[in-house]
Amino acid sequence: MPSSASTPEFRPFVTWQGIIDWAQSHYRDRIFNKDEKIPTRPGLLYLVHRGAVRLVGSALASGSDNPTASDATDKVFLGFVGAGQPLEIVAQSPFNFQVYAHVEQTKVIWMYWEELDNWPHLRREVLEIFRYQHQRKLLWLCIVGQKRTTERLISFLKLLIEEYGEASDRGYCLPYPLTHAQIASAIGATRVTITRLMGKLRQQGIISIQEENLICWLTER
Question: Which of 103, 137, 171 is the last residue of a domain?
Fold first, then answer.
């Protein structure tokens, strides 16, 4: 059963207000609307100040060096990055990585890595969070390797709830909506299959769907 105790609490950046002031004075912050693509490039460090971003990956068609929509295969949901967490995009051919604002009024700050030398405490916290994110990605790979789709779905939901779940009256709920298509792309299934399995989990009392299509894991289970 998911438990918030299994997920370490990210401490607010000790110099967060200084970072905010610096970003505003250097025009290094921007607010994005829901589902708006966030321009990114390798070599920069991004900090999610408010809201959440959605990571998406796709493989380019063979022989293509241009990551356009016509060349890319279906997009795969790769996870969230919430407020107070860092993000880095690494160029890796033939894969294309994109970032989207997952909720309204998502605010992102960006800087060059060498600029972190001005905030040594921030650098340590960023590297600590990146190590944690790497461990979670290894768990994600283990989930995708499971044979049964039902097992992949349950393990995937548990992983997200453990990482982002917020306590409610009956369990833990994701603070961000997640579509069946996004879940399907993350675990290698079809949207129709995910819709059917999500219905079964609801009938069994394992999950519930709250307002705004938020997925909740019921602690009674």
Answer: 137
Tell me, yes or no, whether 142 lies in a domain: no
Buried b / exposed e across 149-179, counting CB within 10 Å, b at 16+? beebbbbbbbbbbbbbbeeeeebbbbebebe
pTM: 0.81
Distance, CA of 176 to CA of 102 (rounded, Å): 8
Contact 177, 212 (CB under 8 A): yes
Number of structural domains, the chain? Answer: 2
Residue with tokens 């044979």: 147
Quote the CA–CA distance of 134 and 141 in Å, as a whole number.
Answer: 11
**Other beta carbons less than 10 A from residue 41's beta carbon:** 8
CATH number at residue 92: 2.60.120.10
In a domain, 172, yes or no: yes
For residue range 170-180, list pLDDT tens digits in order. Answer: 789 999 999 99
- Where a domain ends, among 108, 137, 166? 137
CA separation for the pair 158, 113 (Å, rounded) = 33
What residues contact residue 34 under an 8 Å CB cut-off, 6+ apart?
Answer: 101, 102, 103, 104, 106
Same domain, 20 and 98: yes
pLDDT tens figures, 158-197: 999 988 899 988 789 999 999 999 999 999 999 999 999 9
